[in-house]
């Protein structure tokens, strides 16, 4: 009768004392599994190296480590089936090892799939609203799925411990006060999990959205199940609870589109001629590469005793560009007024009896 590989291994280790022959069998099975893993993944790397898709390489890279341990565990299981003495030892640790390995593989597959799908959602392009929405959903679903996998894995590992399993059965059977206590203790975690699901479905914010929250201007850098990281314009990070974006008010400047309108206010003398100012503004805004070509308006929006309020309205593709555009136009218009219409700046008029009004400020053009 043809002998199996396990029979050869058993006879080869029979010359060792009892504890050491089991260890030798475990080492032999482990080395065989590692050799098989090395051969298989070497072939897989060659195959995916010839493809153009980064997703294949990412999947192989993610699965390399967990599958190595899975093959070792499988080799030990097959060895334990053939050798009763080794099976007794393996049964004591299998309840811990197998759920952990399976959970690890599930996490690796999940992360590889999420990263592969994120590659298709490129947020570096100019019109990236759809990509940002997709990345936000992927991020939130990844967090939730990771939590569920880890929770189930830890539960299976704990249930393999007889004492813990008995306690769990007792709690389930008794329910009542113990169940209420467990439910109350798990309420924050469940609330965060539900908030994460709600965030992914309702989309009040997305990755890279521009928001104003707690009086700070910044971009959404990361969305977790319990908190959101906002990168403020000066490189600080603002940590905001997820519930605040679901229950409180905040400004989202890129909910539908990143395009924005902005204004520059000039306070000028009531006798100022507006037509030359409008012509100069239109010239400057047309020459500025930050202007998106949508809106350019000059309006007198208010009149006071000593000044008029002139609003220069303009548009840009996003908020950082709009801020720089407003600074450019403000500086350019002030320099032009100083050079060509210095009398246009608002002045304070003082009345001295029946005399003509006295003025303070720059002298009118001669």
Automatic annotation (TrEMBL):
Record-linked Gene3D superfamilies:
1.10.287.1260, 2.30.30.60
Q: A GO molecular-function term, please?
A: mechanosensitive monoatomic ion channel activity
The coiled-coil segments of this chain are none
Q: Where do the Mechanosensitive ion channel MscS domain residues begin and end?
A: 190-255
Keyword field:
Membrane, Transmembrane, Transmembrane helix
Give any Gene Ontology cellular component: membrane
> What InterPro entries does the record point to?
LSM_dom_sf (IPR010920), MscS_beta-dom_sf (IPR023408), MscS_channel_2nd (IPR006685)
Give compartment(s): Membrane
Q: Which Pfam families match?
A: MS_channel_2nd (PF00924)
What residue intervals traverse the membrane? 20-41, 93-114, 140-161, 167-186
Protein name as it appears in the record: Membrane protein
